[in-house]
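[Discussion] Sanity-checking designs against the backbone

I'm trying to build intuition for which residues belong where. Below is a structure token string of 429 positions. I'd appreciate it if someone posts a full sequence so I can compare it with mine line by line.
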């Protein structure tokens, strides 16, 4: 019987339902954190702009520092205990903020430490759950599993962005961290109830440097993985560029109230939910590679509506552009995740995820800095034109690569698809 005939994964697969619930709760908590920590820094600690910038950077810095070895450790160890440990660590770290406030020890240094350590936990959690899913689900169920995980992540992000401010308003920014910690308690409980146990990896003599190098060679030497990673890095540069100045653009250039801005950003981001659920259906009709081009080049072309935004009815231009970009990016992520999980050997998935993430996320702070410089020197609207134009332009990497010349991504990695790196990455370290 086909998976469709047996019903959806959330109804028939208990362990996936628990993984989905735990991951969604964690994404919600992480999204709330993105609002709550800066609010505490501004309202309670009167932090400077530079300190707030450090707070945001601290959440991403662990990818650059520990992302590569994290992928190796995830491939060496069972992934579910890693997810449990990181959820527990996040729970304790976020609960420590209001407790420190009650003891009179709340400081910007403490918030920086919490941001850095929870960012480190996020590196391990994301790498582990990406590598864990293929062992939990049958290959036929993995596309649906990826779609549901990415769709719920987008929905959780939207809810978290809206809830973070409301929680801070009614409970106070510091006390709101208890609610944030509670989301990781939910995640911890759900993950602890998963019955699936992984097959222990064979014990071999391993060298960290060698295994890190193997992950990097896998990405650099395979034309498909190399293309997707380069595209991800270029895309994140442009995405973070316009997202980092969109609030200033909407308030100072368009003349909107701060409350309206929050609603517009949430409306634009809601496209991610639509993209997650459209990805599989479109790919089934036109092919996975063609669908990737449609979602990453076609839809994000409407990002150029964003710089045209004006007050009044003109705000619909922002919503349309933001919705299209969010839909395209999330749908592309669904397709990319499904491809990588079927294409890459299971024993290398952790290293692949970490290596690609380090290269992709490394451009995020650069995009924010470049947008800030452009906004300062050229003005907000010209900077927005440049940043949003970069979103579809980044997808030209896909168009002029093997992705642009085929209907579907390859189902499995072979010497012909891997290119020159086939021998160096076809066997585990």
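Best answer:
Here's mine. Compare freely.
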């Amino acid at each position: 019987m086909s998976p469709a005939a047996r019903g959806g994964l959330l109804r028939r697969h208990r362990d996936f339902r628990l993984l989905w619930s735990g991951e969604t709760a964690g994404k919600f908590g992480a999204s709330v954190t993105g609002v709550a920590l800066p609010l505490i820094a501004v309202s309670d600690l009167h932090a400077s702009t530079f300190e707030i910038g450090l707070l945001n950077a601290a959440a991403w810095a662990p990818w650059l520092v520990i992302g590569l070895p994290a992928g190796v450790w995830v491939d060496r160890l069972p992934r579910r205990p890693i997810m449990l440990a990181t959820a527990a660590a996040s729970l304790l770290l976020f609960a420590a903020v209001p407790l420190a406030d009650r003891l009179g020890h709340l400081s910007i240094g403490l918030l920086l430490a919490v941001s850095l350590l929870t960012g480190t936990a996020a590196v391990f959690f994301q790498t582990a759950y990406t590598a864990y899913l293929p062992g939990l689900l049958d290959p036929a169920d993995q596309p649906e599993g990826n779609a549901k995980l990415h769709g719920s992540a987008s929905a959780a992000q939207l809810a978290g962005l809206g809830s973070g401010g409301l929680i801070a308003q009614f409970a106070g920014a510091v006390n709101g961290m208890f609610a944030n910690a509670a989301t990781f308690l939910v995640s911890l409980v759900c993950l602890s109830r998963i019955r699936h146990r992984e097959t222990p990896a064979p014990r071999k003599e391993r060298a960290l440097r060698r295994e890190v190098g193997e992950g990097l060679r896998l990405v650099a030497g395979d034309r498909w993985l190399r293309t997707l990673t380069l595209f991800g890095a270029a895309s994140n540069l442009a995405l973070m560029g316009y997202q980092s100045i969109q609030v200033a653009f909407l308030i100072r250039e368009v003349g909107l109230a701060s409350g309206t801005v929050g609603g517009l950003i949430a409306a634009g981001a809601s496209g991610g939910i639509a993209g997650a659920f459209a990805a599989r259906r479109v790919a089934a009709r036109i092919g996975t590679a063609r669908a990737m081009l449609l979602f990453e080049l076609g839809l994000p072309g409407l990002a150029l509506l964003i710089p045209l935004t004006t007050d009044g009815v003109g705000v619909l231009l922002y919503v349309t552009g933001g919705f299209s970009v969010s839909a395209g990016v999330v749908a592309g992520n669904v397709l990319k995740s499904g491809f990588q999980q079927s294409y890459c050997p299971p024993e290398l998935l952790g290293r692949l995820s970490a290596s690609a993430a380090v290269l992709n996320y490394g451009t995020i702070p650069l995009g924010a800095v470049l947008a800030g410089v452009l906004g300062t020197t050229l003005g907000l609207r010209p900077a927005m034109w440049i940043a949003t134009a970069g979103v579809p332009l980044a997808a030209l990497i896909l168009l002029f690569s093997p992705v642009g010349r085929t209907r579907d991504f390859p189902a499995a990695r072979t010497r012909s698809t891997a290119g020159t790196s086939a021998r160096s990455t076809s066997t585990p370290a």
